[in-house]
């Protein structure tokens, strides 16, 4: 059943719905930050529906959405659709599935595709485009992306020169978690360069402590956190052009610059003086579950842990996150000089499987900064968008705010998670197992990367 909202005031910006539905005077305190509370707040508000009139009469139409975002993260998404549903008369039917990637392919092949899917892998998007299932995005959606996102985001939603899918949510991976109180007490400064970070690690190690804690264990997906380390260093050390060539296999996987990058990672992850604080020796990095790996920071047996913004959900209940909290994070520094560090991240893309007017209207709504701000207001910690029209103050979590600031920095270079762009048998297979062996069995960097190169599919 479509939820009907009443009473929230809106303002119209030039350019139609593509850039409209500003919730004037709508602050984060006016929409409850959790679950159904957002819908209840919206239900007591007024909406000026003038911006939607250009789409014509959509009353009674339905748009189905299929996604990997499931309970409890699904409810804020559902709540954020209330203004669109109220003003257009469209009923948005949301379906989340933990088997999303496999089932989406099955559904498209059987003629049962959803109207819109939130696709987290650009490679999967390209496959669906190649099979003729996804339709190009409407002009309004494309205009929003060109105005409000870094150009690299549009490239990830583009296949063979045609734009298909706008970015939706995002996550920033290039963070180092630490204890602000512990740093202050010890007199340590946040490092601004990679060399400063290594010097800090050596200073901590000289006291007999282990500066880093790490874990790449993740069941069948063991090894994936190590891919993020490698990608971050390739991006910083070899640069974005080499990063792109490597991800696209335009250079060998074992190119000397990639070997150098993995050795640089090894200066931390395979250094017995640096790891594994509170957890064990170097080999324990391979067996430690990634979601437990930063916890020694809380008892002082570890000082730093590299992990994405989404790690905030893994801290024990009651842990305060912030510059003056129990834990916070700083951007993984650049290599070579001071400056704005590159940002490694991921996200979802809204792909449409038909060009029905209701589908196009909803796709455009999701690409607008206004939707991003509504979503921020009804979400709790753990959600952010790279949309530069997002008001950072609408985000509840300090780490989400920091992520948004990095995404919005015009000097920051952004690149999508490389393993998500590689063929699945590499990025979600052989690379995981080889990097696990690199730590657990002390396999040499060049041998690891050569074995991945030899496993790369011929076509």
Automatic annotation (TrEMBL):
InterPro entries: Bact_solute-bd_prot1, SBP. Keywords: Signal, Transport. It holds the Pfam family SBP_bac_8. Residues 1-24 form the signal peptide. Gene3D superfamilies: Periplasmic binding protein-like II. PANTHER family: ARABINOSE-BINDING PROTEIN-RELATED, OSMOPROTECTIVE COMPOUNDS-BINDING PROTEIN GGTB. Belongs to the bacterial solute-binding protein 1 family. This is Carbohydrate ABC transporter substrate-binding protein (CUT1 family).
């Amino acid at each position: 059943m479509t939820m009907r909202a009443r009473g929230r005031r809106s303002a119209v910006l030039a350019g139609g719905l593509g850039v409209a539905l500003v919730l004037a005077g709508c602050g984060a305190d006016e929409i409850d930050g959790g679950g159904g509370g957002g819908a209840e707040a919206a239900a007591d508000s007024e909406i000026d529906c003038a911006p939607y009139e250009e789409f014509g009469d959509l009353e009674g139409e339905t748009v189905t959405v299929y996604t990997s975002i499931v309970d409890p993260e699904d409810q804020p998404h559902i709540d954020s659709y209330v203004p669109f549903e109220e003003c257009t008369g469209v009923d948005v039917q949301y379906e989340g599935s933990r088997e999303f990637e496999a089932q989406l392919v099955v559904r498209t092949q059987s003629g049962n595709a959803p109207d819109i899917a939130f696709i987290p892998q650009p490679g999967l998007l390209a496959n669906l485009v190649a099979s003729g299932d996804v339709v190009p995005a409407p002009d309004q959606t494309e205009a929003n992306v060109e105005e409000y996102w870094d150009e690299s985001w549009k490239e990830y939603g583009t296949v063979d020169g045609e734009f298909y899918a706008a970015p939706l949510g995002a996550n920033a991976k290039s963070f180092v978690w630490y204890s602000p109180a512990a740093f202050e007490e010890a007199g340590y400064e946040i490092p601004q360069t990679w060399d400063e970070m290594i010097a800090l690690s050596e200073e901590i190690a000289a006291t007999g402590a282990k500066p880093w804690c790490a874990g790449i264990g993740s069941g069948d997906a063991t090894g994936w956190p190590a891919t993020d380390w490698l990608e971050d260093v390739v991006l910083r050390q070899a640069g974005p052009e080499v990063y792109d060539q490597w991800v696209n296999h335009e250079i060998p996987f074992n190119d000397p610059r990639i070997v150098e990058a993995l050795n640089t990672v090894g200066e931390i992850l395979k250094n017995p003086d640096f790891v594994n604080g509170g957890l064990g020796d170097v080999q324990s990095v391979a067996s430690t579950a990634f979601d437990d790996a930063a916890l020694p920071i809380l008892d002082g047996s570890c000082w730093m842990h590299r992990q994405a913004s989404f790690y905030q959900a893994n801290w024990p209940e009651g842990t305060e996150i912030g510059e003056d909290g129990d834990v916070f994070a700083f951007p993984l520094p650049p290599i070579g000089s001071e400056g704005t560090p590159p940002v490694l991240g991921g996200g979802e893309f809204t792909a449409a499987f038909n060009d029905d007017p209701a589908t196009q209207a909803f796709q455009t709504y999701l690409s607008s900064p206004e939707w991003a701000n509504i979503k921020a207001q009804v979400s709790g910690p753990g959600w952010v968008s790279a949309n530069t029209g997002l008001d950072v103050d609408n985000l509840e979590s300090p780490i989400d705010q920091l992520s948004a600031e990095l995404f919005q920095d015009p000097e920051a270079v952004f690149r999508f998670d490389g393993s998500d762009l590689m063929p699945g048998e590499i990025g979600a297979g052989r690379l995981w197992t080889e990097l696990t062996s690199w730590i657990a069995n002390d396999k040499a960097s060049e041998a690891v990367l050569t074995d991945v190169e030899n496993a790369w599919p011929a076509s």
